[in-house]
Amino acid sequence: MLVNLKEKQKLIIMASHLLSNLQTYADRVLFLKDGAINKDFDNKKPDKQYLKVEKTEELLGFLSNLKYEELPDNLILIPISENNQDDLKALFLELLQHHIQCSIGRISIEELFDKIYE
Q: Which pTM was predicted?
């Protein structure tokens, strides 16, 4: 039903704690905190890309030259556009050599939720 309404360019306003549904269906998500809008997330707009890695003591040793954020669920987000490309290449090589899994992508609604409401 929501998909049909969306295809017809209808405005749909809903409140939800089902973040995966918002990631799938919402064009825009407003995060409220303390009675005010904390973040206006445009789910259609390409957002910053991050290198995402699970936090370990070994990993923290490789991050000294890099800007990063740590989420409460032990996920490290390293913004690609805000870091020196040579430092990122060096980190990526370390991750490969130490068999540390990582991914690259934009921040998800779930990750943004963790960041805002930690």
A: 0.76
